[in-house]
């Protein structure tokens, strides 16, 4: 059993929280000065424990175990949303740093190593999971503005680091749950079964602009009025069409011309839904398309639908899930299988290498907010559980 130091994990987390501190939370968007400072500090910590640290052209920070021909890779991300919390992403990095240190101390010169990676732009300032996509060779081109910011940060001289199937035999990511299920169940460990797929759509409403004071209600072609009715209908229809795990969000509305004294001519509603079951995603897509057909032409307003993005759901490796569950049982810790509704770098890695995720509870289910928090004892327990699972995996390679 690896001798993992829980206090060291907490110290790493608190130090990382000092980069981009805003109140009780953090603001470290990808390639921001705070993000780069955090990565450079973490690179120094990697070097201290004996990993060879490199920051590549997209901002990925990779610590390689020297002399190892095969490795278990642990990773997550240190960038944050603009109003983020102190644990989102960094939890997995703090675990990985301490597990890599403990492994090298217990097995110096072992042919199997523990590598650590801090992926760039998981949160999507430029492109969601940009760093992990680059690492897996699934990034056809850089998004607008990224190359300029990367060059300013001095990242353009280092070639992108790539996943090596001969070396990287498994990937583990630990994360706060960012939801309420573990806390509600009174359990400290979540064994992630898979990561929800996502469908995103733009629904557009084309009416006619008129004077809001002189045009009778019955004669208006009001894009906003139909948009609001449509949004309400979405919730009722999606409840009938999705699975019990389906979630959806009507996240953005824009209205033009946007004046209080002008009847709205054009409206746009951006929405998405998520589920682990591709059949449920297809059913929700079909329900949305049917609603568009039903509303199109009502009150003189044209309604159209455009897909704005999709990610296929991913199931995580069953053998590695078993290692996490066994490690929790060995520590006397209750665990439960659960899917992740949030997107993680593990979603990208799982398509190229056996992948597992471990969750620890989020207090109140809160995340992506400065009030995000997890009990210290749950953080430390999660570190021990992940260490045992990673050790068992490494010893089997």
Low-confidence stretches: none
Mean pLDDT: 96
- How many strand segments? 15
**What portion of residues belong to β-strands?**
15-25%
N-to-C series of helices and strands: HEEHEEEHEHHEHEEHEEHEEHEHEH
Shape label: elongated
Distance between the termini: 17 Å
Compute the number of helices.
11
The portion of residues assigned to helices is 25-40%
Structural class: alpha/beta
Round the Cα radius of gyration to an integer and report it.
23 Å
Oligomer: single chain
Major sheet size, sense and barrel closure: 9 strands, mixed
Folded structure, characterized:
- Keywords: Hydrolase, Manganese, Metal-binding.
- Its cofactor is Mn(2+).
- Homodimer.
- Its EC number is 3.5.-.-.
- It is an enzyme of class 3 (hydrolase).
- The protein is of the alpha/beta class and 397 residues long.
- The chain is 35% helix and 25% strand.
- It contains 11 helices and 15 strands.
- The strands form 3 sheets. Strands 3, 4, 5, 6, 7, 8, 13, 14 and 15 form a 9-stranded mixed sheet that branches.
- Strand 3 and strand 4 form a beta hairpin.
- It is elongated, with a radius of gyration of 23 Å.
- The two termini are 17 Å apart.
């Amino acid at each position: 059993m690896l001798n993992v130091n829980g206090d060291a994990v907490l110290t790493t987390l608190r130090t990382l929280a000092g980069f981009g501190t805003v109140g009780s939370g953090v603001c470290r968007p990808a390639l921001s000065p705070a993000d780069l400072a955090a990565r450079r500090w973490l690179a120094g910590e990697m070097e201290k424990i004996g990993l060879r640290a490199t920051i590549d052209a997209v901002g990925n920070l990779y610590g390689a175990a020297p002399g190892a021909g095969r490795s278990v890779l642990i990773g997550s991300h240190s960038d944050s949303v603009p109003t983020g919390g102190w644990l989102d992403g960094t939890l997995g990095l703090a675990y990985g740093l301490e597990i890599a240190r403990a492994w090298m101390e217990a097995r110096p010169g072992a042919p199997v190593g523990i590598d650590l990676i801090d992926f760039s732009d998981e949160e999507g300032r430029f492109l969601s999971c940009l760093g992990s996509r680059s690492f897996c060779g699934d990034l056809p081109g850089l998004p607008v503005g990224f190359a300029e910011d990367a060059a300013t940060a001095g990242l353009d001289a280092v070639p992108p680091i790539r996943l090596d199937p001969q070396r990287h035999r498994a990937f583990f990511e630990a994360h706060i749950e960012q939801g309420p299920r573990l806390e509600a169940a009174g359990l400290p460990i979540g064994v992630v079964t898979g990561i929800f797929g996502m469908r995103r759509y733009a629904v557009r409403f084309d009416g006619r602009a008129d004077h809001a004071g002189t045009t009778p209600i019955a004669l208006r072609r009001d894009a906003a009025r139909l948009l609001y009715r449509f949004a309400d209908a979405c919730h009722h229809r999606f409840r009938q069409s999705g699975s019990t795990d389906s979630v959806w969000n009507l996240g953005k509305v824009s209205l033009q011309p946007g004046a209080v004294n002008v009847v709205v001519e054009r409206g746009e509603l951006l929405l998405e839904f998520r589920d682990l079951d591709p059949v449920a995603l297809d059913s929700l897509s079909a329900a949305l398309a049917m609603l568009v057909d039903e509303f199109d032409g009502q009150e003189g307003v044209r309604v159209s639908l455009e897909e704005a993005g999709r990610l296929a759901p991913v199931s995580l490796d069953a053998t590695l899930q078993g290692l996490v569950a066994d490690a929790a049982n060995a520590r006397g810790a209750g665990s439960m299988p659960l899917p992740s509704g949030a997107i993680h770098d593990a979603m990208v890695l799982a398509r190229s290498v056996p992948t597992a995720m471990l969750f620890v509870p989020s207090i109140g289910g809160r995340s992506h907010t400065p009030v995000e928090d997890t009990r210290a004892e749950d953080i430390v327990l999660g570190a021990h559980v992940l260490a045992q699972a990673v050790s068992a995996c490494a010893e089997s390679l």
